[in-house]
Specification:
The N and C termini lie far apart (59 Å). It contains 1 helix and 7 strands, in the order αβββββββ. It has a 4-stranded antiparallel beta sheet with strand order 1-2-7-6, with no helix packed on it. The longest helix has 10 residues. The radius of gyration is 25 Å and the shape is flat. It has a domain of 97 residues: Immunoglobulin-like, CATH 2.60.40. The chain is mainly beta.
Length: 144
């Protein structure tokens, strides 16, 4: 069987593709220029009575964190604010400000008892203890 191969003797197809490959990509930044938090990293543990969430939120103040519970949906949001200035006497040589919002939502297998839920923030880690709502047990139906 014959395979048809397209040949470009001057390499114009690959040259154009290589030129356009980086056209829509943002320029690279150094890690020191990036905001303190890009996304929320978290661990979720479950036992018989409750879910426990540990969410890493470095550089965020406790007042800027918002947690909402809606049945079995948990949403965590935070305002990220970072201001840095380099001064030489009274003259500002460089000033940078990063402002943004990060958020993450997830669905649990069982509804959360909102009255018994608690949140604690310490050393850049948000800990949520979310007790399971009683009475929402799974029941198997027989088919007739």
């Amino acid at each position: 069987m014959n395979d048809i191969v397209k040949r470009d003797p001057f390499g114009m197809d690959t040259l154009f593709d290589d030129l356009m490959k980086g056209f829509w990509v943002r320029p690279m930044r150094w890690p020191s220029e990036m905001p303190a938090m890009q996304n929320i990293r978290m661990d979720l543990k479950e036992d018989e009575k409750a879910y426990t969430v540990h969410a890493e939120m470095p550089g965020v103040k406790k007042e800027d964190i918002h947690v909402t519970l809606d049945g079995n949906v948990v949403s965590i949001a935070a305002e990220v604010k970072k201001v840095r200035e380099e001064k030489e006497g009274e003259k500002v040589l460089r000033g940078e400000r990063h402002f943004g919002r990060v958020a993450r939502s997830f669905t649990l297998a069982q509804d959360v008892d909102e009255d018994g839920a608690s949140a604690r923030f310490s050393d850049g880690v948000l800990e949520l203890v979310l007790p399971k709502k009683a009475g929402s047990e799974t029941r198997r139906l027989t088919i007739e």
